[in-house]
């Protein structure tokens, strides 16, 4: 797992459940990867820009509707089903690996 910064968040209207398409910058070595995320309950697109997230970056790309998801952004389900993103509590460089 690596940390990255969300640089773009757009609506994903073709998803089965309300979702965003995210572009996450993991630094020079890994680059920018795309992901879909069902996080619309707790986060607006504007709140996501610049947010650091933890993601799995070594899974093969997976077709999610019309997009290829290149990483898996991680989070925790609350009792109501909403997803809370897994984020570092202090600033670390993009691409930093979970120890």
Give the percentage of residues in beta strands. Answer: 35-45%
Taking all Cα atoms into account, the compactness measure Rg is 13 Å
Order of helices and strands: EEEHEEEEEE
CATH topology: OB fold (Dihydrolipoamide Acetyltransferase, E2P)
Q: Using the alpha-carbon principal axes, give the shape.
A: globular
What is the domain total for the residues? 1
Tell me the distance between the termini: 9 Å
Features of this protein?
single chain, 99 residues, mainly beta, OB fold (Dihydrolipoamide Acetyltransferase, E2P), five-stranded antiparallel β-sheet, two-stranded antiparallel sheet, 1 helix, 9 strands
Describe it for me?
The protein has 99 residues and is mainly beta. The protein has a single domain, classed as Nucleic acid-binding proteins (OB fold (Dihydrolipoamide Acetyltransferase, E2P), Beta Barrel). It contains 1 helix and 9 strands, in the order βββαββββββ. The protein has one helix at residues 45-48; strands spanning 2-11, 20-25, 32-37, 52-56, 62-64, 67-69, 72-73, 75-77, 83-85. The strands form 3 sheets. The chain has a 5-stranded antiparallel β-sheet with strand order 3-2-1-4-7. It has a two-stranded antiparallel sheet with strand order 5-6. A hairpin with an 8-residue loop joins strand 1 and strand 2 (20-25). The termini are close together.
């Amino acid at each position: 797992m690596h940390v990255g910064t969300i640089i773009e968040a757009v609506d994903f209207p073709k998803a089965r459940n309300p979702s965003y398409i995210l572009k996450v910058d993991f630094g020079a070595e890994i680059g920018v990867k795309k992901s879909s995320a069902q996080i619309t309950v707790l986060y607006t697109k504007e709140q996501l820009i610049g947010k650091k997230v933890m993601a799995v970056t070594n899974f093969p790309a997976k077709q999610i509707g019309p997009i290829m998801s290149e990483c898996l952004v991680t989070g925790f389900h609350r009792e109501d089903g909403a997803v809370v993103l897994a984020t570092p509590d202090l600033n670390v460089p993009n691409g930093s690996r979970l120890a």
